[in-house]
Amino acid sequence: MAIQWFPGHMTSARKKAAETMAVTDVVIEVVDARLPEASTNPLVHELRRQRQRPCLKVLNKSDLADPAATRAWIAWYDRQPGVKAVAVSSKNAGEVARLPGLCQGLAPHRNDNVKPLRMMIMGIPNVGKSTLMNALVKRRIAKVGDEPAVTKSQQTHQLGVRQWITDTPGLMWPKIEHDSDGYMLAASHAIGRNAIIDEEVAVFLADLLLARYPQRLAERYGLAADGLDGVAVVEGIARRRALRTRGGDPDLEKASMVLLQDYRDGKLGRISLETPQTRQAMLARAAASGDAEGRQD
After folding, report:
1. Which letter does DSSP use for residue 64 in this model?
2. From CA 118, how far away is CA 165, in angstroms rounded?
3. 144: pLDDT strictly greater than 80
């Protein structure tokens, strides 16, 4: 199943974002620290490139991500021109408070009453943009919810005499190029449930955990990883939690939601679904597959 999700309101949101970008000095792009590249919207990069705007890449939910993977991602982004990366948890006010200063460093010429620093928060749905915005302005002005696409319109607020910030709705792009990105986004609850099949997403997540964090499955569910695949993990969770359908069979739908929710809530520990190395390997496989298909054609 290829996962695609592009609600109609996002077309107008993209147009409005492009207009705001024209009067913005620094883009604060919020991504999920557990899947930074899969949760990076290529439209944001395109808009930034057109306007030549620097970017503060905020790896949010870092308290849920593997610290070693997060360090590798920060080093990877910091090597990109016009980009500064930082890992935060938007629930930690002290970490969030650092962001305007980091943005100021990316636009040092915008630092007086005549030319205040204008920042713009962008990112895909449900990566914590609204929680971050509330922490920056130190009051609840943006609606927060554990569902994608809660924010539907832009909001602009003054942080100080010399700083303004605009929060934008979560923005997806029309076509997710790599299937694994769609599954990672779905597992992390960045895509509406009407666009996914929970069991397929859970099997994908289970396969990834078997490959990279098998001990977490043993610790949480008492499942030995040897000889298992993703389907067997979901079935094992159903048996361990006594989740059964009316007919007495393992309830794979409920077991899938248990696994997905445990991952989303951090109950499996600090997990990253991708690293710079796994990302490059995936892209290499995709390129090789494309080359092979081209030769066959």
Report:
1. G
2. 6
3. no
Rounded Cα gap, residues 125 and 211, in angstroms: 27
Residue 279 corresponds to which tokens in the numbers above? 């990302």
Which amino acid belongs to residue 177?
Answer: E
> pLDDT band for position 52 (50/70/90)?
very high
Pair 255, 202: CB distance under 8 Å: yes
- pTM for the full predicted model: 0.89
Place of tokens 């207009």: 19
Other C-beta atoms closer than 10 Å to the C-beta of 54 total: 16
26 within 8 A of 120, measured Cβ to Cβ:
yes
Q: Angle 117-140-114 (CA atoms, 0-180°, nearest 5)?
A: 15
Cα separation, 193 vs 201, in Å, equals: 11
Position of tokens 């620097």?
54
Contacts 24+ apart (CB under 8 A), 213-217: 213/268, 213/269, 213/271, 216/268, 216/269, 216/271, 217/268
